[in-house]
Structure formats: C-alpha cells, structure tokens
Records
---
Amino acid sequence: MKHLVVLAHPRAESFTRRVCDTYIEAVRALGHAVTLRDLYAMEFDPVATAVEAHTRPPAEPPPDVRVEMDHLIAADVVAFVSPVWWIAPPAIMKGWLDRVLRGGGFAYGHGPNGPRGALIGKQGLVFTSSGSTEREFIDSRKLDAIRVMWGAGTVEFCGIRLLEHLHFGPVGSRSTPAMIEGYLQAVKDNVQRHFAAP
Amino acid sequence: MNVLVVLAHPEPRSFNGALRDTAVSALEAAGHRVEQSDLYAMRWQPVLGPAEFGDAAPPAIFNAQQAQRRAVAAGTQAADVQAEQAKLQCADLLLLIFPVWWFGMPAILKGWIDRVFALDVAYGGGRWFDQGVYRGKRALICTTTGARADRFGHAGLFGPLDWVLHPLRVGTLNFCGFDTLEPFVAWAAGHRDEADRRALLVRWATRLAGIEREEPQPFRRLSDFPSPSMRDHR
C-alpha cells in the first residue's frame, strides 16, 4: 500500500513530528511505501488564488497544486498530522485542503442527490493534538467540532473512508512523558489494527 | 461606531466582494467609521511559524503560544501582526466576510486568526469569555455557502451550519470576549441568479443600517459551568 502523509508543524522535534515519524516507521515496517509532504519544510503556499478558486477540471491548477493532486491520486491511504489551533487546522494545513481537494470530479463532484465524493476507494487517518486536557476538550464540544470538520466536512465528503481520527491531549506543559509514550503507542496500535495482515 | 471589515476572498468581483462593498457603503451611510483588512489585496501572510519571530536562539521545539508570549513581552511581534492588532483594538464591531471552504474559513483568514489573536494580546492570564480581552466589542460573521440551506440543519447532509461556525463564533470570538451577532448567511450564493443576489444585498444593507441596535447572541459565562475543567484554563 502507498501512504501519503501530510504534516503541518514547523519544527522537527515537536510532538506532531513524533506522531508523524511513528506512523511512517510503523507502516514502513509492514512493507508499505510512504510519501511525506512536510508543508512547513516545503514552504507550501496555502492561499488559493482567484483563478484556481473559480476553475474546475479539466482546467489545470497551478503546478504546486498539481504535484499534491498527483501524490493524492497515487496514494491508497492519506494521513493528516497537525496540531489544533483555534479548534481548526493551522492555516498551512487548511490551505492544503482548500487548494488540493478540488471539485469538478477530482476530490468531489455533483450527482443527482447533491455533492458526491470522488476519492472513493482511498482510506484516511487524521491525527490531531492540543494542549487542553481530554476532559476540557470534550466538555467544551471542541472535540465534536474538529471531528465534524475533518470527518463529514472534509475526508468523508471526498469519499475517503476515515479509518481513524486520533486526538491527543493534553500535549505540552500538562503532559507527562508517560502520556506522550501512550499517545505514540496508540499510533502504532492503530497502524497494526488497520494495516497488519490478520 | 468603529467597524473593522475583514474580507477573505480572492476575487473582489465575487459575491463576497459585493457583500463587502455593500457593508462598507451601508455602515458609512449610517455614520460609522470603517477600517478594512482585505486579506488577499494586502497579500496577508497566513503561516504562523518560527520564521516570523526571528529568535536568535529559538528553542528546539516550536510552541506557537510560547513564541507569541516572548515576542509580546519583548515588543518584537511582526509589524504586520501589530498593525492588525491595533485595528482590532480600535474596533467596536468586527465584521468577518468569507466563503465556507471545507467546513471552515479560507486559509488566509485562518492564518489571520492564528497570527493576530496572539497569546497575551487577545487572551491569556485568565482573560477569556466574560473576562475576555475584547469584552464590550461585538463581532458579526457574514458567510457564503456552496450548498443550499436545506443541506444544512439536523436532517441535512452537512448538519447544522453552527457545527461549522462554532470554532470561530464560540471558540475564538466569544473566547476572546466578543459578543457575537446572529451570523448573516448567503446560502448557495454561487448558484443564485442576479435578482436573487440583489435582493440578498438589499437585505444585508438593511440589516447593517440597524446593526447597532441588535441584541447579541447568548454568551457563555464562566460561572455558568460548574465543572472545574471548564473554568480552569491555563
């Protein structure tokens, strides 16, 4: 299987990066191939232009978007790894979604009953994290909001089967090393559960 | 009133652009002072990262909030961020105009929030919700959707639009102390005919003419929440 990993964190030593590395290592151990798109390192431009926002296939998108679309086409599994900032993805990740998940039959199209996902057959995973405690994140409905945005609002909207959305918290000043190890173990466990041969 | 109008759309001739133009004329006609941040026209840089902090010895792990805290304390925030924070400080009403893209704001506006609503400027030190920094200010979301109104709601394909707006309305604006007004939603704006769009703009202008007299939406107060986990934030 081919995995496309889309990462949004500016530093190599971050927790987000450790989640990403753990995922990549675990799927590679199963013999799967991985393509990593490290958006900060690539200096990915998240701002959709007027032209690309108002054109649809077969009109060609800008070359940087074309590259990402080709990676997505080639992938069987796409994994998104980013922190939660203001109960939403960082702008650089939001812009990858804005620009790459094009309509007109690429990521979605329109059928007789309304919008229809076009990336059917692909599988998706979402990994997010925040500094809030799990309890606070649930009580305040933040968890619901990000699950809806990533799930029905984006990944599933495109017809991608969402295997898992793992949210980790607290990360940062309120986490212990054991908690962090537990989060990373959950990444490994989920890779085994979804991709290891029975 | 001082009004800050923020527009996040790449095409000034779009319906979002028309909502902005209508808002500016209607607000000025009602005697308000309007300041604008047209994010595409300004070529706003939306990516919050280590680059803008220019630390001589940055820590190995970038933490956006800690980087903001240090820059605020040292007075070294980026000039473009400080300019927007000053506009926000002057505003009695913040008006955000944007299309819904992927259950959220376009990246350029998400990045305006990420960078401008910095820790120790927009919130921090127990200043949130009814203790928030921007208490007394009001905010109004004006948005366009690609899908029809009947696609939203509890029985609709997408669920209620408030699921989409909740992170911005409650998690960001109320969080920082803003009172929010009922959002103005132009459903399926791209699929309407000219007459329909003109009627929407008239309704928008009429609403803005009386915006000062509108009652804000219910506001969550910290004391409404018995759970300590909801009150104890940092």
---
Amino acid sequence: MMNTKATIRRFVEDNFMMGSRRSAFADNASFMEHHIIDSTGFLELITFIEEMFHVTVEEDEMLPENLDNLDAINAYLSRKLSTVTA
Amino acid sequence: MTMLLHQHFLDSVARTPDKTALVCGEQRHSYAEVARRAHVLACALQRRGVHRGDRVALFFDNGVEFVAGLYACLSIGAVFMPVNPLTKSDKLAFMLCDARASALLTQDALAGEWQPALQTSGSMHSVFVSDGCDADDARLQPWPGLDGHAPSPEPATIDQDLAAIIYTSGSTGFPKGVMLSHLNMVTAANSVSSYLGLRHDDVILCALPLAFDYGLYQVLMGFKLGATVVLERNFSFPVKVLETMVREHVTVFPGVPTMFASLMTLKSLSQFDLGHLRLITNTAAALSETHIQRLRALFPQATLYSMYGLTECKRVTYLPPEQLDVRPTSVGRGMPNEELWLVDDEGRRLPNGSVGELVIRGSHVMRGYWERPDETAQRLKPGPLPGESVLYSGDLFRTDDEGWLYFVARRDDIIKTRGEKVSPREVENAIQSLPGVHEVAVIGVDDEILGQAIKAFITLEPGVQLTDRDVIRHCLTRLESFMAPKYIEFVDALPKTDTGKIKKTGLARGHTDAERTAA
C-alpha cells in the first residue's frame, strides 16, 4: 500500500495539476501559495481524505496548518489516526 | 481639489501616515508605506515608458503589491486592469491583447499562466514580478526597491480619463473590458460608502478577490476614509478568516452568498467573539430569505445590507436594513446620486407596479466596453439630456406600489454561479475543444449554495467514451475553476430548433425533473 504522502500526491496531481501545468512540487510546498488548489479544490481534497483514510475532518481542523501541503496532511493524519487507534 | 481616485488615498496618507492601512497575514502596512511602495513602482513604470492612458494589468493574489500597483498606475495616469488570479493563460492572453496592455505587474506563482500569455502579446513591453522570476525574457524587470527615486511629474489626468478597465463575461464567450473613468469610480465609492455609513475607524475584512469589483472597492472606499483593510487571500479556510476577524476587531464584513452559506454551516461559529462587527454587506447574488434570517440571528450586533450591482456601474441598488423585515426579497432602490427607472421593450418609462428592464442614470455609469462599439450601443443609450448616456442593465425587474425593486430575470443567458458571471458560450467553447465531443450545450441550474450551478449536456462522436471527470479536468485547464461544470450529462442528441440551433429551454426543464425524481 502506498504511503500517505504518495497517495495524496497522486490525488492532487490527477485532479488539480493538468496537462502542461503538471510540474513537480515539494512535500512542503503550499497548495494555496503555488495555486495548486483553490477553495473548491480544498473541499474535494477534504472529501478524498475522509473517504480514503476513514476519518472525519472536523471543522476546527480545516486549517492550512493541517491541509495546505503534503507534510502538513501527513502529520495531521498521523495524529488523527493514532488517536483513533489509541 | 480632490477629484481623482488616487488623490483621495493621498489625502488619507497626509492625514494619518502612520495608521495601519493594510493587514495581509502577519504583515501590517501603514498608509505612508503603501504610498511609498506605490510611488517607487510608479517611477519604475514611467522609466519603462508607461504613459498616461496606457493599460497595465495587475495579476496578483490579494496583497499589498496589488494595492501599490493600482495606485502606482493611477498616479501616472495609466489605466489599471485587475485580472482574477484564477484566470488561465488563454484568457489572460486574450485580455492582454484586447486591451493592448503595455505592462504587467504580477507574481512568480502565476508564471505558469502569464508566461505563455506573454508570447502572443505584442504590445507588452514590461513585466514586473513582485517576488522575482528567473525566466529568460527581456521584458522582465526587477521589482523596484523602496528607496532612492526622484518624484514623478504630475500627469495631466482629469476625472474624465480612464482609471480602470475591468473585464467581465460577455454572451459572445469572449470577455469585454468595462471602461471606468476616475469620475465613475469616485462617484460609486462616494455613494456606496455614504449609504453604508463607512467610517475612518472601521476595520474592513476583504476576502473577496481584488480583481472582483466589490473586493476592489473595499480598498478604494476604505483608503478614501483612512480606514484599515484586512486582506485575506480567499475564503478556503473559513475558520482562519474568523480567527483574523477576532484578532483584528473587524467591524465590516463584505461577502457573497456562498461565503455566508459556508459560515453558517460552522458549528463553532458562536465561539468566535465578533462583537466588533457592525456591518455585513452582501452582493453578487441575492441571499435567500432563510439565509437573511439566519445571518441576522447569528450576528445580531451587525446591520445587514442586501445589494445589487453590475460591473458596468459598480452598484445599482441597496435595501436599507430597516426594510429587511418589510420586503426581504427586494433588492431595494437607488443609492444616493443615482436615478433608476424601468422601461418596456420600446424604451418607454413604466409606472410603479410594472415589470421592465432596469435603466440606470448617474456619474458612475461606465464609459462603454473597450473597443466594442456594438456591445456598448446595446447597453449605453441616449439619456434625458443632450449627449448623456444611460445604462440599460439587461436585467428585468418589477417594482411594487412604492417603487421598491425586485429582480425578475436576466435578459441574456449569462449564468451567475458563486457570485461570478459565467458565459455559457465560454464553457461550451472549452468543452468543444475536447477531442471526442460532438456537440455541447451549457446551462445554469438552480443550486442552493452556488445560486446557479453549471451543467453541460454533451453528445460524443461515435465510439468515444468520456467520463464526467475527463470533461471537468479539461475545463479546469482552460477556465477559471468556478466555470467548470458541476453536472455533466451525456445524451444521445440535443434538442434543436427548426433552424438547427440547440434549444436550451427544454434542457433546463429536463434537469429540474430529474432532480425532482431523485429527491
């Protein structure tokens, strides 16, 4: 099974980075800053994370600190999943 | 004498140089600093040969660079063109060519769009990138530093000169540039800030794009009064915006219905202390009665203004808050220093209680569409005084017995989604260019959150298979994201008129029936 970052990266590349605009982005590159994901896109990303990882992203967790780059999502999901299994 | 848009800003700079003018995330910028940034940029533009009347495009996320850029343009008599940062390269190229823009002020993160657009822009001679760019193009200029520039000579600008060209969707599928003079914009800013009762001690939160005229006016009105404007890049993270509102003691919150809808879904809303909030203003699309009631219940400390406007004259109507309970579905009536009336198909004025096209008279009415005489003639027609033009809105309204206005319908087929105007033709052109698509028809369907959602009906070439996602992804490469369809329906054939044109009325009915069956 792919790791979290690779899974999210694939989703982002497949859904938000089309054709010639497909270029490599760093794990800590801000989606907002680099115009990779816009408002509607973040909602799609949240839905994807919820379905893929069987979690509920609470409204007070819908923050750039948790969702605006691959590293942030990875850290957020690690915290989240460890609480679920604990 | 203060007649020009930027002079109002400079008056505030002189009055309160040290006051915070802009808050952008962690950064705070005083009036003097914004003026300094605008000044060095103005000098740099002048040195590159940007003259009075030349068009300069501003292609930025919300931030101090956009604001400095617009005042830099105005102070040298140039015309600024705000461009939504969601704009893709083809459309940007069209706008730069259409306006024959001389210069572009932009940022590196958008290089993927502006670099290809520059290839076709023959008029463009200077590109300033705020955070630098290492591309190989002789037109690229370093962003000017903050010191060591001689004052630029005062240009001979008068209030009849153009201040801005704002592109708006046209039913032809190509955007058209709304030409606005200094007089137009100063008039609109004066009227709107006077009926809202905006004050110098207000803190205005702007999460609307500055390329959208109501976002832009938050800066123009706020800076005229000497208020503080808090710029948010967007509304992607509503909780983040609420935190900013609490921290900055925000007093004024302008929005569009989709923003209010997402705020109202937050369960934690009551945990945020928004006690300073005194004004909420809504534009771009009407709030439903339910949303009006809920907003007022959630923010009892704030006065709510419902408004209606057009880029062609900025603002048309507002509903005084005390009328919200009396006639909640009304868009209100004219603002100060403006006259409105309804006409029938022959252009005759109609009495109260009628339905007709809304006509607008005032100094805020645009000077026309840039180099589009035919489309201008459809909208600007002779007014009551010799040589005067009044604006035909293209929207149908009714009046009640007392003259209050109620929106009835648009006369063209433009879709209003997420508060943005979308030309079905533009979306159809994008989808048509996808290999395998035979025919396409795009319509707007009712949507509780979006106002209208975009739906595309598509017939495919024989043997071709495409999914919804293929079409949407294709659209996202060519169109601003709000223009991508929410619904795709693949059909065997599209209904046609006797002359072979696609008949859209039947399509809308089909969607409603399907939705009803599903519900």
